[in-house]
Amino acid sequence: MENIADKTKESIRVNQLLFNYKHKTPNFGSLPISMIWTEKFFAFLISFQLYNLIYESFLPIWPISWKLRYSSSYLSLLSLDITVISHVSESIPSSIRLAYSVSWLFIGSSLLLTGILASFFFSCSRSFRCWFLRHYFKAMDFLYIPICLGLIPTAMCRYDDCQITGTQITISLLTIIVCGVFAIGYPVFCIFIIKKHEFVCNDDHEDTLKTKELEQVLGISSEWLYEKMYFFSSFKATWLRIYYKPIRLFFSLGVIIVHAGLYEKHQPKIIILLIMFCAFTGYSIFIPIYRCGSSNILNILLNGSLLGNIFIAYLKLNDKNSQYMKDANLSELIYIINIFSAIVIGVALVIIFITRPKWPTNAEDVKILAASYRYVLNDFRNAQIMISRLQNTNEFMLMFIQPKSITGMIEILYKHYNMLQKENHPLQFTAIEQLDALTHYESLVKTKSLLISPVIIETLPIILDVLKRRGSELIMMSPVKRRILLKITALRIIINGRNTVPFTIGVDIEEYWRFKPKSEEVNDETMITIEVDSGRDVEERYPMSCLRKNESEFFEDSDDERVLETKMNREDRYKCRENSDEKLLQKVKRKKNRERKKNNNYEHQAFISRKMT
Question: Are residues 421 and 462 located together in one domain of the fold?
Answer without folding.
Answer: no
